[in-house]
TrEMBL record:
SMART domains reported in the protein's UniProt record: P4Hc
Superkingdom of origin organism: Bacteria
Protein name: 2OG-Fe(II) oxygenase
Lineage, opening ranks: Bacteria, Pseudomonadati, Pseudomonadota, Alphaproteobacteria, Rhodobacterales
PROSITE patterns for this protein: FE2OG_OXY
Length: 183
């Protein structure tokens, strides 16, 4: 039940390009400084929030379908909303972009209600080295599928990380779905 669930071809290559272009339409924020309390040792990435970009509504429409499908097929959690914007992240080799082990359930009002996380691989896997999304749903580490456009869905409490990017750049899309407390 808590095994990460993979949805290949959640977005096609042209759609991945469009999402990266939307995120790049304005300067990206530093993950260490904005809407995020982590410091650079924990996370080094550049971020865009899709609710701040014009023309990203179709991305959210697709996300709703994908998360609903994953939840139906694999989790059956009580989900009520998407209380936070989707986030596009760029992890670049120029500063070994990474995100250390963490759970997505946080202290903020919305972050405390996160239940499912979905991460989409927006880059071609040979566009970068490192940058592996690893999950620890049990005593073993599971590497997420790296195919471009593949979505990985997992309970937001599952520990996960992105290993340092050592060459090239990796782009990802992350969204959280929210609901009442687990019981
Ligand atoms: O970029 C990724 O693959 C993961 C992002 C992530 O874990 C997060 O934003 O909480
Ligand atoms: Fe995360």
């Amino acid at each position: 039940m808590f095994t990460p669930y993979s949805l290949p071809d959640a977005f096609d290559p042209a759609e991945c390009d469009r999402i990266i272009a939307l995120a790049s339409a304005a300067p990206l924020d530093d993950a260490g400084l904005v809407r995020n309390t982590s410091d650079h040792n924990i996370r080094r990435a550049d971020l865009a929030w899709l609710d701040e970009r014009e023309g990203a509504e179709w991305v959210m429409d697709r996300i709703i379908q994908l998360v609903a499908r994953a939840n139906r097929e694999a989790f059956d959690f009580a989900l009520t909303e998407f209380a936070e914007s989707a986030q596009v992240a760029r992890y670049g080799a120029e500063r070994e972009g990474h995100f250390d082990w963490h759970s997505d359930i946080g202290m903020g009002a919305a972050a405390a209600r996160r239940k499912l996380t979905m991460v989409v691989q927006l880059s071609e896997s040979d566009a970068y080295s490192g940058g592996v999304l690893e999950l620890m749903p049990d005593a073993n580490i599971h590497a997420a599928e790296t195919g471009r456009g593949t979505a990985t869905v997992f309970p937001s409490f599952v520990l996960h990380r992105v290993t340092p990017v050592t060459a090239g750049e990796r782009w990802s899309l992350t969204i959280w779905s929210h609901g009442p407390a687990f019981r």
